[in-house]
Design brief:
- The strands form two sheets. The chain has an eight-stranded parallel barrel, surrounded by six helices.
- The protein is 48% helix and 14% strand.
- Helix 1 runs parallel beside helix 9, helix 9 packs antiparallel against helix 10 and helix 11 crosses helix 12.
- It has a single domain, classed as TIM Barrel.
């Protein structure tokens, strides 16, 4: 259902407001680049600093701009179960293909609390749910055993974006859940290893800028062109690292600005990329061959 390359969309800002003209340009670039879908209002979309009104409006606009050409998985997670239910229902009403639910951050619930949280949200909607495990951001790790228990209770949980960085844990997830859960990488720099263990794709930061290049890694791997997939992945790897010179989405927004897609503006408490890192990023983009 959700396989291939999904772009974790940046939210372009201009003078403090969402820049929908730039968003349209970015979405056209995604469709032309051949990605399988987009993910509005995830971590890369700076969802913690947008209002409810902006969140809902953004998803509605993305649905309209995409016009069913590719899939849309809307970020609707929260550390409040009720808030996540509200956002998930609104996204379903807007016409998305699925929702992405991040681990509830800050509260640090036990595993049974995570299971109860995701179960209640998933049961409040009828569209597919993608779990999002990112312990580095949320302070909590949703373990494979808990995922296996959860999917016994809820049929519409279909995939997991895994950003724990722990390949052994991802292998354990596939071992316990089999084909019942589609594993997607949450780290650009682990795309090839994840495909190698049985993952089916990625929710990518770098594909905002280079959708066709990220897609080519997956396509070549899936068609048995492993050497070409490896070659393309290792060419991308320095840029994958560059996307984390500072906290995501600061570097990708700077890169998008350099390439002429949108402003590098971020919302506080995030701040623009430092001058030193901006120079390093520019050098990495030029070395790759990005036209600036």
């Amino acid at each position: 259902m959700f396989e291939g390359v999904f772009t974790a969309l940046v939210t372009p800002f201009k003078n403090g407001k969402i820049d929908y003209d730039s968003l349209e340009k970015i979405i056209e670039h995604q469709i032309k680049g051949g990605v399988d879908g987009v993910v509005p209002m995830g971590t890369t979309g700076e969802s913690p600093t947008v209002s409810y009104e902006e969140h809902e409006e953004f998803i509605i606009r993305v649905v309209k701009m995409v016009n069913k050409k590719i899939k849309i998985i809307a970020g609707t997670g929260s550390n409040s179960t009720d808030e996540a239910i509200y956002l998930s229902k609104a996204a379903q009403d807007a016409g998305v293909d699925g929702v992405l639910l991040v681990n509830p951050y800050y509260n640090k619930p036990p595993q049974r609390g995570l299971i109860a949280h995701f179960e209640q949200i998933a049961k409040s909607i009828s569209i597919p749910v993608v779990l999002y495990n990112i312990p580095g951001r949320t302070g909590i790790n949703f373990l494979p055993e808990s995922v296996a228990e959860l999917i016994k209770r809820v049929p519409n949980i279909v995939a997991m974006k895994e950003a724990s960085g722990d390949i052994a844990q991802m292998m354990n997830l596939i071992e316990l859940c089999g084909d019942r859960i589609t594993l997607l990488s949450g780290d650009d720099n682990l795309l090839l290893p994840l495909l190698g263990i049985g993952g089916k794709g990625i929710i990518s930061v770098l594909s905002n800028l280079l959708p066709a290049d990220v897609k080519a890694v997956v396509t070549n791997f899936n068609t048995g062109n492993f050497e070409e997939a490896k070659k393309r992945f290792y060419k991308l790897l320095p840029l994958c690292r560059a996307m984390f010179y500072e906290t995501n989405p600061i570097p990708i927004k700077a890169a998008m600005e350099m390439a002429g897609f949108c402003s590098s503006e971020v919302r506080l408490p995030l701040v623009p990329l430092s001058d030193d890192n901006r120079k390093k990023l520019k050098d990495a983009l030029i070395a790759y061959g990005v036209k600036l």
